[in-house]
Amino acid sequence: MLAKDLVAASSKPLVLSILAGGESYGYEIIQKVRELSGGHIEWSDGMLYPVLHRLERDGLIDSEWKEADTGRERKYYFLSSDGRKALKTERQQWLAVHNTLSRLWKIKPVSI
Amino acid sequence: MAGRSQHVEPIMENQTRFNLNAALENWRQELAGQLNLTSDDRRELETHLRDAVAGFQQRGLNDEESFWLARRRVGQPQQLAEEFAKADPAKVWRERVFWMWLAVFLSSTLGSMAGYIVFALMSVNTNSTARVVTQTTLYLLASLIPIIIAVSLAKGKWVAFFSKLTQLVENRRHLAMAAFLCVALSSFIRIAAMAIFYSRHNIHNNSFILQELASTIYPLIIALLLVWLIPSQIRRTPKRV
């Protein structure tokens, strides 16, 4: 399980990266994060929405109510052009941290 | 444990059968009590809860287990409200200010329209006794209308009618059109009423037209404020009935 600070800090790049792969809604985003992290990152369901709303207010993502295949309506989020730029910056910063730690721990670094 | 639950189950089924829809309705009511959540937030959380319930059901859990697990995962309504308020503290207030100004706008424009119609009728009617009678009746009727509307809304009557009315403002352009139409209609009625009054009394005065037009500035400002403040969920999608 991730420390609370790290969960908060990583939520932005995680959400932006998931939405870079196509529009999605809250429940699906949480499921994806749980799956991809192999259960190491457990987001509480209620915590994600404030994150999404903050990103929306900052103009990094947009939202729209749409009907799903089941006939039920869901609020879908998608990446804006500003969000795409922000994701690039986030990616560079996280990889810089990753590479520094990798060198210290003698793991092979990745190219940024 | 397994043996005991086999004995208990049939009795439980007869006594209290878990009703998923009723449980969801209760949860929605609980959420509605949280003042920090906008109607859009509540709707979003409800779709999440329903997805979570469906997810547990697919894994083979029954309705009751699925509901309680999903509910626990989504979190306590009060905690949710606090978290949501942190993300955008001004959002809830923007929505409240919008409805407040909408009420001010409607009561001021509709009120002045009604007042000027009464005034026009008054100036046509010259008989003093009849005048007092009409005046009293019309003012009583005018003051009764908001009371009747308030009481019937509180009792849950005419809901279909009012929800149709809210569809008028389902997006920013509709709201702007409806508001400006209201202002135009009320200024037309005022000018017409004053014209009737002056012609009845044989007064030649045209400056009132400018004066009446100037008094539309305030309602116009409120209308602009409303269009600017319109809550995002109305701006984007029709309000759910």
How would you summarize this macromolecular structure in one to three sentences?
With 112 residues, chain A is an alpha+beta fold. Chain A is built from four helices and two strands.
How is the topology of this model organized?
The complex is a heterodimer of chains A (112) and B (241).
Chain A: H1 4-20, H2 26-36, H3 45-57, E1 61-67, E2 73-79, H4 81-104
Chain B: H1 2-15, H2 20-32, H3 39-58, H4 63-74, H5 77-87, H6 89-124, H7 128-154, H8 159-167, H9 172-200, H10 207-214, H11 217-229, H12 232-236
Helix pairs in contact in B: 2-3, 2-4, 3-4, 5-6, 6-7, 6-9, 6-11, 9-10, 9-11
Major protein interface: A-B, 21 and 26 residues
| DSSP strand content of chain A | 5-15%
Percentage of residues in strands of chain B? under 5%
Q: State the secondary-structure class of chain B.
A: mainly alpha
Key traits:
heterodimer; A: 112 residues; alpha+beta; two-stranded antiparallel ribbon; 4 helices; globular; B: 241 residues; mainly alpha; 12 helices; 0% strand; elongated; disordered N terminus; disordered C terminus
What does this structure look like?
The complex is a heterodimer of chains A (112) and B (241). By secondary structure, chain A is an alpha+beta fold. Chain A has helices at 4-20, 26-36, 45-57, 81-104; strands spanning 61-67, 73-79. In chain A, 58% of the residues lie in helices and 12% in strands. Chain A has a two-stranded antiparallel ribbon. Helices cover 82% and strands 0% of the residues of chain B. Chain B has helices spanning 2-15, 20-32, 39-58, 63-74, 77-87, 89-124, 128-154, 159-167, 172-200, 207-214, 217-229, 232-236. Mean pLDDT of chain B is 77; it is low at 1-15 and 235-241. Classes of the chains: A alpha+beta (112), B mainly alpha (241). The interface between A and B is medium-sized, with 21 and 26 residues.
